[in-house]
TrEMBL record:
<dbReference type="InterPro" id="IPR003959">
    <property type="entry name" value="ATPase_AAA_core"/>
</dbReference>
<dbReference type="InterPro" id="IPR027065">
    <property type="entry name" value="Lon_Prtase"/>
</dbReference>
<comment type="function">
    <text>ATP-dependent serine protease that mediates the selective degradation of mutant and abnormal proteins as well as certain short-lived regulatory proteins. Required for cellular homeostasis and for survival from DNA damage and developmental changes induced by stress. Degrades polypeptides processively to yield small peptide fragments that are 5 to 10 amino acids long. Binds to DNA in a double-stranded, site-specific manner.</text>
</comment>
<comment type="similarity">
    <text>Belongs to the peptidase S16 family.</text>
</comment>
<keyword id="KW-0963">Cytoplasm</keyword>
<dbReference type="InterPro" id="IPR046336">
    <property type="entry name" value="Lon_prtase_N_sf"/>
</dbReference>
<keyword id="KW-0720">Serine protease</keyword>
<dbReference type="InterPro" id="IPR015947">
    <property type="entry name" value="PUA-like_sf"/>
</dbReference>
<keyword id="KW-0645">Protease</keyword>
<dbReference type="Pfam" id="PF22667">
    <property type="entry name" value="Lon_lid"/>
</dbReference>
<comment type="subunit">
    <text>Homohexamer. Organized in a ring with a central cavity.</text>
</comment>
<dbReference type="Pfam" id="PF00004">
    <property type="entry name" value="AAA"/>
</dbReference>
<dbReference type="GO" id="GO:0004252">
    <property type="term" value="F:serine-type endopeptidase activity"/>
</dbReference>
<dbReference type="GO" id="GO:0034605">
    <property type="term" value="P:cellular response to heat"/>
</dbReference>
<dbReference type="GO" id="GO:0043565">
    <property type="term" value="F:sequence-specific DNA binding"/>
</dbReference>
<keyword id="KW-0067">ATP-binding</keyword>
<dbReference type="GO" id="GO:0005737">
    <property type="term" value="C:cytoplasm"/>
</dbReference>
Amino acid sequence: MINLQKILGKDHLHHSKLILPLLPLRDIVVFPYMVAPLFVGRAKSVNALADAMNNEKSVFLSIQKTAGIDNPKEKDISTIGTIGTVLQLLRLPDGTVKALVEGKSRGRIINFIKNEDFFQVEVESLQESEVSDTESVALSRSIVESFKEYAKINKSISKDLVQNISNIEIPSRLADTVSAHFAFKIEDKQKLLETEVPNKRLAFLLELIKMEIEVFQMDQKIKVRVKDQMEKTQKNYYLNEQMRAIKKEMGAEDDAAEELIELENQIKRKRMPREAAAKARQEFKKLKQMTPMSAEATVVRNYIEWIISLPWFDRSKVRNNLDEAEKILNEDHYGLEKPKERILEYLAVQSLVKKLRGPILCLVGPPGVGKTSIAKSVARATGRKFVRLSLGGVRDEAEIRGHRRTYIGAMPGKIIQSLKKTGVNNPVFCLDEVDKMSMDFRGDPSAALLEVLDPEQNYNFNDHYMDLDYDLSEILFITTANTLPDIPLPLQDRMEIIRLPGYTEYEKYNIAKDFLISKQIKANGLKGKDVNFSPNSIYNIIRHYTREAGVRNLEREISSICRKNAREYVKNKEQTSFRITEKSISKFLGPPKFRYGQVEEKDQVGIVTGLAWTQVGGELLCIETLTMPGKGKLMITGKLGDVMKESSQAAFSYVRSRTESFAINPDFYETIDIHIHVPEGAIPKDGPSAGIAMCTSIASALTHRPVFRDLAMTGEITLRGRVLPIGGLKEKILAAHRGGIKKVLIPKENEKDLKDIPASISRQVEIVPVDHMDEVLFHALHSKKSIEINPVKHDRDIPIEIMSGKTETPVHSTIIN
Ligand SMILES: Nc1ncnc2c1ncn2[C@@H]1O[C@H](COP(=O)(O)OP(=O)(O)OP(=O)(O)O)[C@@H](O)[C@H]1O
């Protein structure tokens, strides 16, 4: 054997050859200057160590290319390895050996020597120069710095080691020593060993260290995070357990658990769409993991309860018997032929096509004409349940569609709430007062309503709170409104409008006789008693105690009479018969509230009765004109809108242009002022349809020819005196009839609307279609001048309360054209 001392000493032979026993390593690379304990079990390896002990303790340490092979061949051993010395050998009781080896220098196998007992190789020692250049110095410094940095974060590295490493001056040696202290991958370590050029080795090492630092840092971060998480979960678990223990002591545990079981059963039992069921189960799973009393659990529980309480598939059996439906509609309501007819058509189509994707019905009319109650009747006629939602004043989209569940106190919208209340998915859903919705920064409720009412979309209505599609297409929607123009156009577009224009006196009488009286008798506990309203008493109430298009006040007055009789009865049980006569009405209801009959006591100069259309039906509108000495000023008062003012100016211009034919002094406007006033000055009025009335009033004032008191008129006027058509004719004529007017002038073009006027009215009121202002004046004015030349004198005689008490509530009185 060659003297190893000689090689490892400072001899400058770079490539000396040695024969050494080989110890194949599985999972460790031993670097020069590194001391490592090895556990050796394989017989050949043990023998190799034994041989080493006999021969200056030298051994060649090289790694197997594949760790798993037990009996490696030559090809399985890496050629580059480390020549080392065995420092210590310890035989363990199980026959294996623990050896402490120290690396000395690199070596390369040049030959495998045949030996049956152990591996033996011929090795050339690769000595390295200890000289350092600038590059290696720089790299060495970086490595020391990086090592220090690593030591800072990895507390297992001792300060002494850091010190030792900083003291190493020879770059190649530094590389080997540092390499030994890192847990690099085995392939990287072997590569470090195999890199013979020191600078290259240093560079590669530096790269590996940097990477290691990064990985280590990341590793630390993850560990901290996991630890935090673990601590939190453990804390929660601990607290929950504690809470449970406390509750158990107090006996609440069982209740909560029972509630959960009940809820789960409900989810299982409830018939609902797959999507809803999945959501309910998923939320239930969450709920189970929550502390039962927590706020969060309440939110989740509420949501689940909403899901299971909705009528997803529950429905009432719909009756499609048209005769039966007609009977019920007639049973509940007098008259209303057109709406009833339309409703029956609607039901007929529905029975044929099963699912009606047709337009929604919209009943438009003044208050108290039975819009809501006819919708209720439809429900009864078809065997559906009835639900009503008033949209008056709704200004927030969320009221229709709900708030998202993320908001505190969130709830589903009113549609879903109402459905839960009815418990079926096919009720008659009455949306009242669609014209009273408003819009503000919280969104536009009418847009949400569009989705509800559109048959193309409403089969998957998505409430924000539920966040599940709900099928609204089984519902029969009926909407109601007082005025058409106030309904947003896109909504109008989706609905079929049915007008309920208001009742005639005769209709009101019949409604009272056949419906309202019996209803109120029952409501006031007088059923079975003999209560009798004479026909004249009913007319008396209608004429002197109500002035309305519908019958709500009439019903209220009847109710008031019944109430008073009930009181009588309670006082004096003997009395069972109550006769209500025309005379006794004032006993119950006080003095008459309204004057019925002639609007004027005598024909007057400058006073004309016009006809207006308002939200509560038609109205009489008094127009007064006075002339006085002045300079041709035209004054217009009575809170008139721009359109109405302009209309009065047009009327004035027309009169001026016709001074000759009216036999008025053509220069009248230079010497007199004209004042047009429309009383009830506090109520805003607008619209062009009072044009001919104002013109007649001016003409009458200027010619001093009185106007017939029992005549009313409506129509727009052009500068040349043509009479243009107006709207709301039926309401206006009903109002004229109510007011005791005998003759009404209407625009010729409105003749086509006369078919809507009940015969009972047209028999009592003469309706005269007119085309031109000349005709109007012909019908309206006396042919002779009034002898009372200056009407101002009579100012005090004019009954100013001509319209007084006309409407008990100051309504927006809009004249439309
Ligand atoms: N044609 C009729 N036959 C029998 N009763 C009627 C008739 N019209 C109205 N009524 C009765 O008048 C009352 C008022 O009707 P309802 O509440 O339906 O009015 P409405 O048109 O919906 O009013 P609003 O626009 O103010 O909601 C109800 O009690 C109703 O039964």
